[in-house]
Amino acid sequence: xxxxxxxxxxxxxxxxxxxxxxxxxxxxxxxxxxxxxxxxxxxxxxxxxxxxxxxxxxxxxxxxxxxxxxxxxxxxxxxxxxxxxxxxxxxxxxxxxxxxxxxxxxxxxxxxxxxxxxxxxxxxxxxxxxxxxxxxxxxxxxxxxxxxxxxxxxxxxxxxxxxxxxxxxxxxxxxxxxxxxxxxxxxxxxxxxxxxxxxxxxxxxxxxxxxxxxxxxxxxxxxxxxxxxxxxxxxxxxxxxxxxxxxxxxxxxxxxxxxxxxxxxxxxxxxxxxxxxxxxxxxx
Length: 284
What we know:
The chain is α/β, with parallel strands linked by helices. The protein has 2 domains: 6-230, no CATH class; 236-281, no CATH class. It is built from 10 helices and 9 strands. It has helices at 18-31, 65-78, 80-83, 106-115, 120-134, 174-183, 211-223, 236-248, 260-270, 274-281, and strands at residues 6-11, 35-39, 53-54, 62-63, 92-93, 99-100, 144-148, 190-195, 227-230. The strands form 3 sheets. A 5-stranded parallel β-sheet has the order 2-7-8-1-9. Strands 3-4 form a two-stranded antiparallel sheet. Strands 5-6 form a two-stranded antiparallel sheet. The termini are far apart.
């Protein structure tokens, strides 16, 4: 069965559980036999980069070899059982002496990117290209789940600087350039699941949480059309369930916290925000 590409965008106020909702979706896809392409935090690709090098493939772009090699290592661990089955559809040349031939396993390409850190950014681009081309195919096909936490980090501004101290635009980063192609709704055989995040977001108002506010006009137009999935604060039943769980796990040990008045106080202090409630009940 061919699965069309659907884009779901998870939004909600800070601390409502967007990342955990994404993790649940990723876990479900993995259990159903999908290949998972997971970006745990897109904001880390546009700030605090330890090593930024001019791209050997495209003169106007910049490579991030450390981030790329770390991502390839995690991708290999998550999808190890797929890497020997997926075969490359084209030949990739890295240097005058090094190349990866057509028909070789995808795992060989990933291993090359992990061991040859300098080429890791271009290897990520090649891996994403192969996945985009082969997802949902009839011969040895697979379903692909692209999961990006903090997808709004792919648009806007970065903290990275060029040698002349001018800012680096997101589209000038090799990793961001290639990941944006996976967000486009021009391939089939899977789904794109993304969250919008204020945490780690650069130059965005702290009160912003709606797609238009966090993505900006360019990002919103790039992702449109998508299915918005709002993540709300705890309902009364959800709060009660979490409260009873904390009691069972002995997180709430003060006698007052185990009374009805204590529970009402936790509701007032947390406003049923999952993250705030967790911090209030956490150990010191």
